[in-house]
């Protein structure tokens, strides 16, 4: 039987920084208020001429290089994003493939908001275990600055731009296998987080543009309560399913939405600060890119070792949520 192994991680962090002090100049807010509410101190912004595919391509090249494979060995490219280069087509995954020189390979996007990277990890696991693919490039890429209303003081300071990528490869070694990925959704909560304009329900029009309906809107308080409850329950279910305790987790890498959410979930699960990877203070919420960017941060800090047990946990618009449990399995150099 073939198993799916998590071989490498990479990211692209745009160099341009927007601090809380910068937001004080454009909206009625303060560094103290933003920090207390979210834990965010700064976030990264892509250049005006950069699109999500540009960010994703840079992260992808790093992940490929670290995996020790040639790009010609990749037989599937999946991109998780809610800020695609184009509204409908072509997919951002196709554009990333082209930009890094991958040809004649299946490529497609997945839209699951902040849970996107966990969703595509689940898909990659299934493709590899079925024997259909051998080396899959996963990319979470977001240019959230392109869908923000900078007059909306409830949301505009939360999000940032960036990309993360990983290589998932086939292995015969069960000890390297991704243990489990669990994903779910509930569309009854569609109004909590959404971009209402530009689709088939509210097609692009002057009215839609004037109302900034193509920008993200979010009901923060309701989302916070549901996120803590859902994320905690999802992790408990995953650990119980595999007879594991919180002490068995080397690195807990949650979606980087809000430090208060991360702290509340961590405390509910009795996970200590050394186990929990936090980057929301540096990058803000980068949606589908946040988990791979956070994992890459831990990797570059020298904290991520071969054989470490990693637990992903994410929650996003849809609503969607998911968790993943796996051993980090880089190839021996």
UniProtKB/TrEMBL annotation:
UniProt KW Cytoplasm keyword: yes
Every Beta-ketoacyl-[acyl-carrier-protein] synthase III C-terminal domain range: 239-327
UniProt subcellular location: Cytoplasm
Keyword DNA repair tagged: no
ACP-binding as annotated region, ranges: 256-260
Pfam family, one: ACP_syn_III
Domain of life: Bacteria
UniProt remark on domains: The last Arg residue of the ACP-binding site is essential for the weak association between ACP/AcpP and FabH.
Family assignment from sequence similarity: Belongs to the thiolase-like superfamily. FabH family.
Subunit structure: Homodimer.
Record protein name field: Beta-ketoacyl-[acyl-carrier-protein] synthase III
The organism of origin for this protein: Arcobacter porcinus
Gene from which this protein is expressed: fabH_1
